[in-house]
Specification:
Rossmann fold, 12% strand, 5 strands, single chain
Length: 231
């Protein structure tokens, strides 16, 4: 009985350690890649202009892409050019061929019914049927796309997408359940890849050989770019 208790405690602490590695992004009002590509939401044009003109976005993937895309925000092959350059110039790691990368959209989306609702276990099993998978990497952050003061004049009925302690606790509870389910189903090491710089996480997903997307526009964009990369 005591041994089972220790095993359970070890697994609990291991999952808690993984969750502690996830970055919390409380103020990303404008670097919302999918909304800009798909022209989605009330503030996509404002965000696009910010990325083009605000010095803090200089040398980001989307700053370079938007400056050179001749107005075609859906030019995925051209966008890949700047993703590859960013990865090379910053000497970023890319996933191993036997590594399964799962993107989770977390943070402000905890208010949606679709939050962490996909059948991830079956999706992992489908990939493992025909591929050798030696590790699973979860790419995510607790991202809160809070409206900036400069963009508030555009807001109509949208959520503020702000950080609250209650939302964060729901996120951590959901991630704990998600990681527990994976550990119970698969005898594979799990790692967290989470960065405050969104471009770094984006690159890791796009360069992965085996990729599972989540629900949401950013994850849809990652899957599209990942597929284009592997053609």
């Amino acid at each position: 009985m005591f041994i089972f208790f220790l095993c359970g405690l070890y697994l609990y602490m291991d999952i808690k350690s993984l969750i502690s590695q996830v970055q919390i992004l409380k103020g990303n009002s404008d670097y919302r890649c999918a909304d800009i590509v798909y022209h989605k939401g009330e503030r996509w044009e404002h965000s696009k202009n910010q990325i083009l003109n605000n010095p803090k976005y200089e040398n980001t993937i989307f700053n370079n892409f938007l400056k050179n895309n001749n107005g075609n925000d859906k030019n995925f092959n051209f966008l890949l050019k700047f993703i590859k350059e960013y990865c090379f110039n910053n000497n970023l790691p890319i996933p191993d061929d036997d590594e399964l990368v799962i993107h989770l959209r977390m943070g402000d989306v905890v208010v949606h019914k679709w939050f962490l609702s996909k059948n991830y276990i079956n999706l992992i099993k489908e990939i493992k049927k025909n591929n050798t998978i030696s590790k699973i990497t979860i790419v995510t952050s607790f991202a809160y796309q809070t409206w900036s003061q400069e963009s508030m004049y555009l807001r109509k009925k949208s959520e503020l997408w702000n950080y609250t302690h209650e939302k964060q606790k729901k996120n951590e509870k959901g991630l704990f359940k998600f990681l527990s389910n994976i550990q119970n189903q698969f005898n594979l090491p799990i790692t967290i890849y989470s960065n405050k710089i969104i471009d770094v996480d984006l690159c890791y997903c796009v360069f992965s050989k085996h990729f599972i997307k989540d629900t949401g526009g950013f994850s849809d964009l990652l899957e599209k770019l990942n597929q284009q990369m592997r053609k």
